[in-house]
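Appendix B: complex inputs.
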Amino acid sequence: MNIYDIAKRSGVSIATVSRVLNGSEKVSPKTREKVLKVMQEEGYTPNIFARGLGLNSIKMIGILCTDVSDIFYAKAVSLVEGLLRQNGFDALLCCTGNELENKKKSLDLLLKKRVDAVILIGSAFKENTDNSHIENAAKQVPVIIINGLVELPNTYCVLCDEQSAVSQNVQLLHKQGYDDILYLYDVLTYSGCIKISGYKDGLKKCNLPFQETLMVKVPKSIDGVTAKVTELLGEGLKFSAVMASEDLLAIGALKALQKFNLTMPVIGFNNSILAQCSSPALTTVDNMLDTLCPTAVQLLVDILENKTVPQKIVISSKLIERDTFPI
Amino acid sequence: MNIYDIAKRSGVSIATVSRVLNGSEKVSPKTREKVLKVMQEEGYTPNIFARGLGLNSIKMIGILCTDVSDIFYAKAVSLVEGLLRQNGFDALLCCTGNELENKKKSLDLLLKKRVDAVILIGSAFKENTDNSHIENAAKQVPVIIINGLVELPNTYCVLCDEQSAVSQNVQLLHKQGYDDILYLYDVLTYSGCIKISGYKDGLKKCNLPFQETLMVKVPKSIDGVTAKVTELLGEGLKFSAVMASEDLLAIGALKALQKFNLTMPVIGFNNSILAQCSSPALTTVDNMLDTLCPTAVQLLVDILENKTVPQKIVISSKLIERDTFPI
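Resulting structure:
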């Protein structure tokens, strides 16, 4: 919804809408009311004060994340918010949940607030089927995606090479004689899928067969994972190491192993504070949020200053060695 | 800074400022420029569009928290943001860090954005010496504090009775024969202090002496706490149970105990996901964020609708029993 749409829907000229926006007294009260009503209905709120000051920007960036209570997203939001503020931008935060409908609604809402750009945190914003909402948003403002990949015009991605990370871990385990690797995941976001292809790639590079039974979907809760892995062990599933798509899942598995007095390599993902909390402490992949976030904010600043920037920046991950898999 | 101040500083009448704000063409370009310059210098950005629509509110709430990467604050921000949105409000998030100067600056910034109200998350916003910034903010908009207590006009607090929680835990431990209770804390925020008085109150109720050596300040990191408690155990400090002001610290202590093969009750605070990650899982106090946040948002909605509301709502905590202290 832009000024042209408002004019069309109000049945007046663009000049009239502009006059209303500028508070001109040349517009009749009746017309004024009609135009304002359409704007209100459409949620159209241009920051005319900023325009009055001759500024092109309201210095506000929309941040979308599915769930800021998730420890990984929380860290990203915290880093991004601080960095934006250092650069003179405010952060308007929207938590969307995983429903596509809500993601669309939240994105719409940010755009109606006339933010200068949108930062999407996490790969949960790349849908497998329909990314038209991101495409539409990018027609209005630059869209930056942290740790997700959507290749569209005016969309910029800063991400960690999670596929290689997982593949390398499989190879590392193989080198030490661990070939039957249980892989746990919870959701098939872009990141979730890319890690699975890393797992398969690693097996392939080691000439190991992919075993359907060793790739297991689990709920995103410690107790849920513990219950699931306990069940698998009870059923006699054989594996010699565990990898998980995030720390929480790895810790749930670790607790199940402890119940059976089993010791084997366990590798998490994200290098969250959770990895330090478990006993033994969890070996995990650092997906470099501390680098991704400053890189993304710098990219954004450069874009808004009309500098030429890359559309995609990929950073390598790092394996953090702790007690569950001493290398 | 309001319209009167702008008029005064610009050397024009209030009517002139008002005309500038309304985009009237009766103001000379020179005067207009002068007034806009003062407004820009002062960061005065009234939401004139909202006013133009006859709305008194821009439907935006400022959220201040010291650090959204903290797991407890992250959960609170997540809950509050979702609830605000359900009520038709946007959330403008500011993370301040612990420096008073930054807290003041962030609060100022939110007020200049003309938010409808401010929600302060966590007791870190109550200073021991100077709360004038909160007092000033509350002169402009309602201030809601979640889990902190500042008694000032137009300031509303929703908090958990953490003092009783800690006191009751001391009494519970005493009943089971644990009298030398190591108490670990990291910061002396309002919440930090209130928990310490709970510890002292509990000892008093059990006729136990307060021992200076058993109240220990530790860094807010797992490794830091583990090192400190290891050091204390190495020095021969005797204690038969551990309580901590938050889960992270309790887990750090637990790891030190494990190094010495010691088993004793350990009680955390916050009932965060960390408590579930530790092995054995941590018994901890739930300070009822799931109740505090909806209560706070409802309070805010009621305030903005000019309903009569209490200035202080106190909710009881709940002890969540897990493996480190089966009751």
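Residues 3-42 of chain B form a domain with the 434 Repressor (Amino-terminal Domain) fold (CATH 1.10.260.40).
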